[in-house]
Amino acid sequence: MPLREQHLQYFTTLQSIRMPRVMRVTGSMIALTLTAALVFLTFTPWVQTTVGAGTVTTLDPNDRVQEINALVSGRIERWYVRDGARVEEGDPILKIADNDANLIERLNAEQRQLLNARDAAAAALSTARIDLQRTRDLFDSGLAARRTYEQARIRVEGLRSDLASAEAAIARQQVDLSRQAQQIVHAPRDGTILRINAGASSTTVSVGDPVATFQPEGAKRVVELYIDGRDVALVHPGSKVRLVFEGWPVVQFSGWPSIAFGTFPGEVLSVDPTAQANGQFRVLIAEPEETDEPWPSERFIRFGAKVRGWVLFETVPLGFELWRQLNNFPPTLTQQPSSGAQTR
After folding, report:
1. Dihedrals φ, ψ of 58, to 5°?
2. What are the pLDDT digits (tens) for 93-124?
3. Are 295 and 234 in contact (CB under 8 A)?
4. Among candidates 105, 97, 79, 57, which has minimal Cα distance to 183?
5. Which of 62, 85, 121, 184 could crosslink 81 through cysteines, CB 3.0-4.6 Å?
6. DSSP state of 33
7. Other CB atoms within 10 Å distance of the CB of residue 231
8. E strand or H helix at 214
9. Residue 305 near residue 246, CB atoms below 8 Å
10. Whole-angstrom Cα distance, residue 129 to residue 131?
11. How confident is the model at residue 16 (pLDDT cuts 50, 70, 90)?
12. What are phi and psi of 307, to 5 degrees?
């Protein structure tokens, strides 16, 4: 028996308060855990990100949801579409009848009268010009007075003014007639009628009233995200983004985008120089032109769908990222954006 053990057997009290074996094992495990955690936090890479929420929209305002307006005032005579109907460019949407059923006939009759008045003015002007030429010849020969010659000239100018007024009246009347002829509203391009805004037949509408809501087809999708002003200075056109679309299955690791599932790539197009009313900045993100992970089709990701995105920054140790988050510091910037990039 070792000498130390021989001595301890005479000190029973001291022997009874020795550290139990389970405590020594627990202490060793805690020390190993702390060492492993320190190594893990020091050497594990983490991609810094700034997160934002937004929606799917379009870059071209002509591709966004728009209103179809009535071109003339009157009452709705017939609808050619319903909610959710797909239309092609030029397809009729509705027919509007004027409140005065005989308006077109009266406009046509008025046009005929104006045409007759113009022809009469043109004939009178032609005759006056012949008379003016005759009077000039007589005046040059000394057979007519100057007053007679000047009156002939004044009469020609007056008839020329009457002819111009008649032509202007015809032009105005043709505008009215063409407006009334546009009583069938057509689809401006291929797309879908989202909903009918006006009432049923016999409902009265005025010129410019919205009668239907229309979504054009073939629009290019982009994503608008809203990010915090603390990080916006580091976001610039060309920054890489990972997106999560509403309703799409996903397993997301913001700091390890390479092992995430169900996320899609994006690229920053622009950053608004002015904050929104809530203090956040809008960032427009487009689908990369060359990518192995194309965005889902419009069947699954429609306009207006909610999106969550992570703008990717620098790769730092995990421990540094935890320290940054606890202190609410902005991400680290070690590379300057390329020339021409838009920053705040």
Report:
1. -125, 155
2. 888 876 555 666 666 777 777 787 788 878 88
3. no
4. 97
5. 85
6. H
7. 18
8. strand 210-216
9. yes
10. 5
11. low
12. -140, 145
